[in-house]
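worker-03 picked up job from queue 'complexes'. Input manifest follows; six sequence lines, order preserved.
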Amino acid sequence: MTGGPDQDDPVAGFNAYRRRMNERILAEPNQVVRRFFALDTQTYRPGALDLKTKELLGLVASLVLRCDDCISYHVAQCHEAGVTREEMFEAFSVGLVVGGSIVIPHMRRAVDFLDRLGGTVQPPGPVPEPPEAHEHG
Amino acid sequence: MTGGPDQDDPVAGFNAYRRRMNERILAEPNQVVRRFFALDTQTYRPGALDLKTKELLGLVASLVLRCDDCISYHVAQCHEAGVTREEMFEAFSVGLVVGGSIVIPHMRRAVDFLDRLGGTVQPPGPVPEPPEAHEHG
Amino acid sequence: MTGGPDQDDPVAGFNAYRRRMNERILAEPNQVVRRFFALDTQTYRPGALDLKTKELLGLVASLVLRCDDCISYHVAQCHEAGVTREEMFEAFSVGLVVGGSIVIPHMRRAVDFLDRLGGTVQPPGPVPEPPEAHEHG
Amino acid sequence: MTGGPDQDDPVAGFNAYRRRMNERILAEPNQVVRRFFALDTQTYRPGALDLKTKELLGLVASLVLRCDDCISYHVAQCHEAGVTREEMFEAFSVGLVVGGSIVIPHMRRAVDFLDRLGGTVQPPGPVPEPPEAHEHG
Amino acid sequence: MTGGPDQDDPVAGFNAYRRRMNERILAEPNQVVRRFFALDTQTYRPGALDLKTKELLGLVASLVLRCDDCISYHVAQCHEAGVTREEMFEAFSVGLVVGGSIVIPHMRRAVDFLDRLGGTVQPPGPVPEPPEAHEHG
Amino acid sequence: MTGGPDQDDPVAGFNAYRRRMNERILAEPNQVVRRFFALDTQTYRPGALDLKTKELLGLVASLVLRCDDCISYHVAQCHEAGVTREEMFEAFSVGLVVGGSIVIPHMRRAVDFLDRLGGTVQPPGPVPEPPEAHEHG
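worker-03 finished. Artifact:
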């Protein structure tokens, strides 16, 4: 009953589960639910704001509301829209400061998901500023 | 540490875990906790509102607060109280519109759980209205 | 004890109250609180993402978390950063769809605040698409 | 900037503010926002579940999400749909137990609003069970 | 319909409104609601944890859930239980870091309420560390 | 993508995942994120309030915000700081009453985690007060 049942490839497992259950839901003759799904899709289409900005807005909204599946979805969409890792972390930082330390476990999973998407993994290199030892989160 | 450790029968696993941990909690001599559990049970007894309505209220409250275990519990209770799949989806639609797209991943798991309860699986048949292609949620 | 005690000029009243209480808080020798306030300021400085995008992220985060004072603050910041009314409404629409109808009362107050900021009030003109009569929200 | 600026008749003030700001919002050419408002209206139309049940669902969802304006709106809608005071309090009790003591201040304002709607004020009469003295909430 | 209608003495207004509406609620023959109120009172009685610790727990819970009336109530209770201003701010700092910047407007009102309670107003004196200029919150 | 992938020793798995992902996050040159992590650590250092009280505050805040990983972390920290099982349950009871029945599934997992930490498992012994049969939660 979790979002990503495939332990070997969590990204593929997450996508497959989402697709399968969305189909189950949309097969149901409930017009309000269907219209909501259509409206949700329409929301992120480029308009006065471009796709990238809208996906970043969806990402931060998901982060502060602490919904792992929504975060994973928008991380993938942002990645596809060309958001860089540095930009992604700036968006994470807004979500972290607005939403507080309660966001940290979701951010850990977001970074894990981002790393698995591949291509964005940036060699950490020399760490510019030694962070204080910390244990929390 | 998840609510349903039994991968083969998530419904049975969910129920067993809930029962076992409730027993652990109620074995503890903390009167406030025990009274809260008793009060929680009393809340859903038929009164001016019947059982079915009260369970639907519990379901929608759980949906907008996005608690998967609470949603599963109330889906099972509603199912047992005779709530039809169509009524269940109307309750879902209220939770979805009030709570927003952030509710969608929980609704996916709720429909998954409902399908596993058996008996309510309704053949999708010819889909009455072709929904827009969508990818989101 | 509300954020905007000045009935004649809510924007000025809101700003004065915020400034006065922030001073009270920062006069207190609590280093964690002070550092948090400094970090909050740093969060919105332009970096990989520009100021406008960051303020929009703060606005949508505030909207889905339904904090009127935070929304008012970011509406003012967005306005100052040159966000147009059309862009503002697209950000509102993301917050509305992610957060649900529970966001509507906050959006009403956000639009009210935006109107009072002046300069952005756009003549409604001929309404392009007649919305269904509705009563809700 | 509060929902009900008219101190003499809070119900009328609340309704006037809501109507005026909804008009402002719908005058804006943002299709996602308009469609969301239309969908919100559609959600509460009688279907497999009747109007009264749907309004009770909206009320409890609003209560646990702690949105005063949404609660007031659904209290008024429930009242109009013929929900009795006793049924209303049973719905409140579900919201209170699911959402916790944090719901109490909103319940106080909900009862206040309900009392002002008139007609439902029920003489308390002899109190059937003397509650423990309490100070909290 | 706000918690503190008395503009001249918000603390007294807050207390009067709370007391009056609690009486209205408890006059209603709903046993679940009454038992919840009694349980709420019982929760803060000294036990393995003393009164002061329990009230601080109630304060931080209210702060991160962002309920102004609950915060005001627990600030008053903590104050009466002998919590010093310095301890109160340390509790605020935990709520702020866990809950994020979204807590700031509630913290402003909490400090305002605390100042009005009197007796705890501590002369700021020489500020030990000059905080960065900041505008946010 | 869950917090505790090691099924045989969930506590060790939880700690390893947390440590590994925190390292990934802190390797990133984002100063706001790093400062937030440092501030989070500083928050729980003994000051006017002692370590035990601060960890209890963090526990209850995590409980009412319903973050399993945060709850597990603070349960472990409280346990290490010498919080007894009886005190832990009193803190749970505050979180339960403030946050409502929606907290119950998180409390089940918290008790499960606490039991696995070892050492605090207290023989239930003769149950002092027979709780009502209940099924809910």
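worker-03 released lock.
The longest helix of chain C spans residues 10-26.
Residues 9-43 of chain C form one domain.
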